[in-house]
């Protein structure tokens, strides 16, 4: 009866992991302990404390649960059990106190245990989180410092290792910058998937062949190798040769047997006074030297050559501003008739009055302008300036000379070449017949249709077209039948041979060229004429005109225009 009432009283005061009957069974056992405590002589405080502790252990662990327990014990225990005990009120008070004390202590111990469990759980969770964070950071670090395709270190890690190698105080260090030759052909012909597989194979080979050195992929088909604590350039060269050998071994990639080669730029130097950026820039420049030499080789950094390259780059970069500042000007060299000595035309030769380097000849900057595309604005200026100046020329006897202007390949391939020439002639008032455009032989012999069509339109306008340095390229005279050409300018190499006593071969070649050109209604000008004897021999074989120091060095137009023609006996 009492245990049932007790169970009913505490039900709902706490979460109890037991059924109602199990609760009543447990409380029945505790009821018997309480009755025992009331009867015991002497009064045993421990029983009440144990009852309180067991209540907490049974999860009756709330203030409301304790309150109802005290209330039920106080009101019903003695009555429901028909207990006859001396001094029952005193004993009951002491019993309730011991139950409350045991309950409180157990609850305190339980709370401390739970707090300790929570603390330990928190520590474990923190440790797990820190471990997970370290693992995550390691993964992120690996992803940030390694190439996802090949698994090799990437540029970030390589730069860190290179900086560390320099800062550690080693005496010397080496870098090999490697690039696959014609890798784009693999991607374009077989697809990027095959290209990627080839990169993976190359990366694996480099790693296996150069395992003691750091091999990194910078991107695309570029790899770089760090050689720490070198003793000289031989150490870096040996690594480069091993890398080239590893790359050129045939590789079976996705069913394709591929053989590739590589080019390598080598930099090996003392660490003092250098930096990772300088090393990589030097290695990159040297790699381009190896590429320019045909590839499948290594090149070693050369400080003097690098300084020359930097100077060439600075010179090319200065061309646009030099055009704006008017630093370019034209000299002219006469094209002289070998029959009567008249100045038939004058070739415009551009000069650069550089504020620091002085007057620069075309060989110093024209190749740079062609490489960078700056030849287009420079060539346009030359064309316009030459036509402007030619429009002011007058002749001592006969017609005023024409002006001959060289056209670069990039100019010839421009779609607006014809409108540009028309516009210049219109603005300057120069008659089309007094403009000659000089084209290199290799350009004219190409199969590209548009430049030939443009020259044909200009020829129909009356503009003359000459092939410059003829004889140094294809030398296909039959092909000239279908080209809009008026004149051949024979390369000076043939004319130079006329200075030798046994120059019969060169003379026969020149005679054949002149004869065939005349058969095609073309005039012939010989370049590089330096002596009177050369001029006489050219005249004898029927050459129409000559150009060279014998007739006049390049300079302002006026002195050439004022020159009196020299009478020359015609050769029949």
What does this protein structure show overall?
This protein is an alpha/beta fold. 54% of the residues lie in helices and 17% in strands. The chain has 22 helices and 16 strands. It has helices at residues 2-10, 20-39, 45-57, 63-81, 88-145, 155-167, 183-190, 192-209, 233-248, 276-292, 303-317, 319-325, 362-372, 375-390, 409-412, 417-428, 441-444, 449-461, 492-496, 504-519, 532-540, 557-561; strands spanning 172-180, 214-219, 222-228, 251-253, 256-258, 262-270, 298-300, 328-337, 343-354, 358-360, 402-406, 435-440, 464-470, 487-490, 523-527, 545-547. It has an 8-stranded mixed barrel, surrounded by 5 helices. A 5-stranded mixed sheet has the order 2-3-1-6-7, sandwiched between helices. Strands 4-5 form a two-stranded antiparallel sheet. Helix 14 runs parallel beside helix 16 (417-428).
- Averaged pLDDT: 88
* Main beta sheet strand tally, sense and closure: 8 strands, mixed, barrel
For the biggest β-sheet, the strand order reads 8-9-11-12-13-14-15-16
Number of strands: 16
Q: Indicate the overall shape.
A: rod-shaped
Unreliable stretches covering 5 or more consecutive residues: 566-572
- What structural category do the secondary elements indicate? alpha/beta
- Rounded to an integer in angstroms, the radius of gyration calculated over CA atoms is 50 Å
Q: State the end-to-end distance.
A: 155 Å
Strand content: 15-25%
Question: What percent of the residues sit in helical stretches (DSSP H or I)?
Answer: 40-55%
The total of helices stands at 22
């Amino acid at each position: 009866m009492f245990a049932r009432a007790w169970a009913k009283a505490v039900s709902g005061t706490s979460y109890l992991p037991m059924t109602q009957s199990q609760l009543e069974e447990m409380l029945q056992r505790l009821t018997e302990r309480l009755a025992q405590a009331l009867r015991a002589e002497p009064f045993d405080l421990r029983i009440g404390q144990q009852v309180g502790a067991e209540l907490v252990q049974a999860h009756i662990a709330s203030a409301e649960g304790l309150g109802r327990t005290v209330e039920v014990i106080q009101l019903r225990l003695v009555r429901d059990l028909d207990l006859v005990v001396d001094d029952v009120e005193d004993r009951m008070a002491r019993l309730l106190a011991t139950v409350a004390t045991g309950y409180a202590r157990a609850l305190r111990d339980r709370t401390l245990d739970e707090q300790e469990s929570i603390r330990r759980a928190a520590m474990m969770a923190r440790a797990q989180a820190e471990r997970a964070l370290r693992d995550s950071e390691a993964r992120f670090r690996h992803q940030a410092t390694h190439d996802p395709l090949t698994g090799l270190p990437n540029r970030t890690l390589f730069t860190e290792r290179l900086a560390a190698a320099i800062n550690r105080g080693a005496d010397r260090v080496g870098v090999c910058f490697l690039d696959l030759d014609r890798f784009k052909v693999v991607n374009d012909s077989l697809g990027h998937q095959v290209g990627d597989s080839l990169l993976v194979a190359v990366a694996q080979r480099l790693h296996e062949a150069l395992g003691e050195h750091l091999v990194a992929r910078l991107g695309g088909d570029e790899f770089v190798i760090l050689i720490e604590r070198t003793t000289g350039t031989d150490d870096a060269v040996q690594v480069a040769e091993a890398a080239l050998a590893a790359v050129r071994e045939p590789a079976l990639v996705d069913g394709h047997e591929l053989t590739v080669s590589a080019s390598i730029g080598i930099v090996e130097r003392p660490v003092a006074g250098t930096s990772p950026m300088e090393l990589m820039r030097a290695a990159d420049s040297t790699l381009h030297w190896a590429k320019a030499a045909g590839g499948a080789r290594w090149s070693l950094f050369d400080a003097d050559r690098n300084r020359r390259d930097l100077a060439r780059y600075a010179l090319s970069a200065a061309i646009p501003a030099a055009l704006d500042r008017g630093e370019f000007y034209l000299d002219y060299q006469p094209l002289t008739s070998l029959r009567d000595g008249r100045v038939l035309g004058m070739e415009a030769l551009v000069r650069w009055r550089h504020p620091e380097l002085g007057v620069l000849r075309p060989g110093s900057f024209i190749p740079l302008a062609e490489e960078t595309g700056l030849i287009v604005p420079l060539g346009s200026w030359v064309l316009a300036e030459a036509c402007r100046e030619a429009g002011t020329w007058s002749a001592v006897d006969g017609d005023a000379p024409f002006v001959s202007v060289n056209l670069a390949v990039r100019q010839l391939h421009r779609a607006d070449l014809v409108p540009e020439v028309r516009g210049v002639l219109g603005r300057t008032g120069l008659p089309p017949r007094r403009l000659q455009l000089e084209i290199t032989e290799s350009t004219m012999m190409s199969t590209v249709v548009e430049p030939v069509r443009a020259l044909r339109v200009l020829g129909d306008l009356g503009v003359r077209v000459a092939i410059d340095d003829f004889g140094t390229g294809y030398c296909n005279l039959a092909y000239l039948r279908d080209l809009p050409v008026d004149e051949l300018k024979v390369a000076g190499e043939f004319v130079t041979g006329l200075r030798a006593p046994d120059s019969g071969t060169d003379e026969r070649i020149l005679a054949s060229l002149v004869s065939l050109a005349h058969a095609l209604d073309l005039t012939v000008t010989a370049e590089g004429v330096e002596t009177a004897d050369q001029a006489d021999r050219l005249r004898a074989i029927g050459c129409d005109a000559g150009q060279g120091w014998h007739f006049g060095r390049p300079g302002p137009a006026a002195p050439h225009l004022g020159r009196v023609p020299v009478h020359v006996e015609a050769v029949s």
